[in-house]
Amino acid sequence: MRRIRNFSIVAHIDHGKSTLADRLIQEAGLVEARQFHDQILDSMDLERERGITIKSSAVTLPWRAPDGAVYQINLIDTPGHVDFSYEVSRALAACEGALLLIDAAQGVEAQTLANLYAAMEHDLVIIPVINKIDLAAADIESTLSQIERDLGLDPDDALQVSAKLGTGLDLVLPAVVERVPPPAGQPDAPLKALIFDAFYDPFRGTVVAVRLVDGSLKAGDQILLMASNAQYRVEEVGLFRVKREPTAQLGAGMVGYVIAGLKTVSDVAIGDTLTLATQPASTPLPGFKSVKPVVFSSIYPISSDDYLSLAESLEKYKLSDAALVYQKDSSLALGLGFRCGFLGLLHLEIVQERLEREFDQSIIMTAPSVRYQFQLKDGRELFIDNPQEYPDPAQIELSLEPYIRASVLIPERYIGAVMKLALDRRGISSSLNYPGPGRAEMIFEMPLAEVIYDFYDKLKSITQGYGSFDYELLDHRPNKLVKVDILLNGDKVDALSVITHKDRARARALAMCERLKEELPRQQFKIAIQGAIGGDIIARSTISAFRKDVTAKCYGGDISRKRKLLEKQKKGKKRMKMVGQIEVPQSAFVAVLKTDED
Hints:
alpha+beta, Rossmann fold, Elongation Factor Tu (Ef-tu), domain 3, Alpha-Beta Plaits
C-alpha cells in the first residue's frame, strides 16, 4: 500500500485536464505511439466532438522512482463543466490527492474555486499546477498571486507545466508520490470497496469501478452488495490501463474494476459498499450525497410502441450517469413517458444526444422548467416542476420561483454587455469585483428560469468565449407566475405548456406561436395557433390553408356558378377542420425552446 497513490485532476473547463492526462499516459508508456490519439480517456464520440469531458475515467500508471521502487499511481480525469460536478465529487471520494489545474492565461475561474472546495470537503492534498505556460498570453506572476489570494494555497508549491508541449511534466508524478499520502486501510480487515462508477458492457454485463478501502478481492470470491443484499460470484478483477487489464487480485487502497455477472442494471447503486458474503464488513462506507436536480423536462418516445425500450435504455443510462433522476409521466398529446431531472441545460442536451446515439432511441423532449413553489389559500404548499400540475389560479395565495447567485468572470471590456444581458433576464446586480488586472467578477441574483434556456450561450457569444459562468441556488422568492397554454385549433397541446412570469407571458406566447407557425406543416384547412392564460387568448398566429383554384375551368358566364363552387369548397374545408388532426413534428417541440432573439 505504501507504493500506491490515488489522485484526480480537477479544473475549470478548457484548462487542459484531458491533455495533461494524455501526456502522463504517454510518459508511462501505456499506449504505443501508433495507437495514441488526443483525449484518449474520452471514450465517447460526443466528448470528442464537443471537446469536453463528460464522464470521469480512471487509469493506472506505473512509475519507477530514482531508487528503483515501482509505484502504482491511479489517476482519475474529471469533467470541468458545472453540470457534471457530481461526477467530480464521486471521483474525489476515491482519491487522497488532487491536481488543481489553472490556465496561465485565464487564471483562477469559477469552477477552479468550486473544485477546490469540493477537494477540501474530502480532505485531499491539493497540488496547484499552472498549465499552458507556453501561451503568448500566459501571465505566470499574476496566476501565482491569484493562487495565494483567491485559493489560499502556497504559490511556492505550484508546478509550472505545458501539457501541450510536455514542458515540466517530469515534475508531476514525483510531486504526486512525494506529497500525496498513500491510502490508509487494513489489508487484513473484511473487504470494503466503494462503487464510484459503473457502465454496461453488452458482452460482460455491468462493469463496476471500485476503490478498495480495506481487504482484498480476487476472481472466485462471493461478494455482497450492502444496499440491496444481493450476492454475486466475481468473474474477473483488474486495473484500468486505458483498456481493461485483468489481474490476479485487487488489494486495499487500489482502484480497479469488478465483473461479477451483474445482469440487470438496477442491482448496482453508485455509492454502494461491496463486501465479501463469507466475511462481511460490519458497516457500509458513507457513499455520496444524493443529487438535487435543477432543471426538469419530460422525455417521450416518438412511437408509443417504443416506451418499454426507452424505459430499459434509461435504466442502463442511469448506471453511467448517477446524476439523472427520472420517474414515470404521461401526456394527453404524447402518451407515456418519463419526467426527468437534470443538473443543468448542458446535462439535458448530453442525456438527449446519448439516448439517441448510444441507445438508438427516437425521443421528444418537452420545454425545460424549474421547480416552483405555490402556497394555496387552504394552507397547503405545493412544489411543481411540471406545468401540467399547475394548480387552479383561484386557489393560489402566493407563487414563488427559485433564485440563484450567478458569478460571471469576464474581461473588463465586456462589463456593459453582460450587465445588459443580466438585467434583461430580471437579474439584480449585487457586486462587482476585480480579482486581477483587466478581469472582472460580476455577481447577480436572478431567477433560475431565466438562465436555463440560453443564458450561457448568449454570455459566451457577447464575451467572444471569454466569459465563465457558475451559479449556486439561493432560495424561492415571490413572483407573479402564470401558466401559458398553446392551443392548435382550440385543442390544448399539454406538452407545450410553460410556467412563466406574468410580465413576460405575452412576449413568450407570441414567440412560441411564431415559432410553431414556421415549423408546423400546412394543411388543407386553416390552423389557428393561440397562446392563452386560462380562458384569455394573449397571442395568435394563423397558418393559411392550401387552396386549390376550383374556379379555374369557369370562364365567362354567370358569377353564381363560381360562387357555388367556392361555397362547396368552403363547406368541405369546414368539415375537414372538424375531423382533421394536426400532427406536431419533433422539430416544433425543439423550436419552441429557442427564444425570439435567436
